[in-house]
Amino acid sequence: SEEKASLIIGDPKEELLNGSAETLIKEGYRLVPLNIMNPDNSIAYNPLELIKRQYILGNYSKAEKYTGVLTNQIYFDPNAKDPFWNDSASNLIKAIILALLVQCDLNNELEKFSMYNVAKMLSNLGGNTDKDENNLLDVYFKKLPSSHIAKDAYAQSNFSTGNTRGSIFTVAMGKLQIFLEQDIAKMTSTNTVDLRRFGFNKIINVSFDDTFRFLKGHYFFTIKDKNANEKVTEKRKIELDSCGNIEIVFKDTLETGSKIHFEINKENDVVKSVYELEIPHEVDDKNTHDEDIRFIPLKEYSNMETKIITGTYSNKPIALFLVVP
């Protein structure tokens, strides 16, 4: 049958969702409503998820770049008479996001990396002083090492300048108020769907250590079908990025028990890493949501393990309903 495209549908009154849900599910779609009006009936969406993913993969420059893109989207105002205030607020929130990210990672609490906690950090520190009348946010950032990823953004925020601090705080806090509402805070605290899914149904992300940066190699699958027969796919070339990462988009049909093989050329040797895959179970006429692949390392076939390996697998297109005012 012809491959169905994923859909993004504006539906402010929920009429389209209510009228077409059953039909779309029968047609093989996965339904995901993003409902700002009633967050209890919504998927979860954390705007910081992409930033966190790049940071976990060790690509700090991309994490910093994506943070800037996000804060510019929040604070950019083409009608502003003086862009200074919005630009300063944007840099301030960029600094807080990056500082919170590093702190959550150090505390092994990345689940707390959310816009709610960004807003709380701004409110608790930016709006208060110590006994010597020093702004607590200023004190916090001054204590960070000079090499900290958040330092430059804070310096560009002009927040440390006392006579502009109040106005910058007001502009910055004004845009974050929505994230302090309990239902919105809950909705944006985690992530239900990977936005890459709208273009790609099957993705594997692999991270090797830094010594693998820019190295080349290939991967292939050993595919086990429902009758336990195995076949080997063609070998596909890969090249790792500056952090030793690779994102693999594939179209192979896999069953649980299939394997993925990595062979990387390193210092006149071939480094091998093999994983058995547990593929999530989908029901054609049910709105199933589990798409995470489980990876089981097969040490008997490997002479190294990857640092991180994650993946999603689905044969269903997505229908996203935007229930927004």
TrEMBL record:
* Highest taxon listed in the record's lineage: Bacteria
- A Pfam match: T4SS-DNA_transf
Biological source species: Staphylococcus epidermidis
Output this protein's name.
Type VI secretion protein
For this record, the Gene Ontology CC terms, alphabetical, are:
membrane
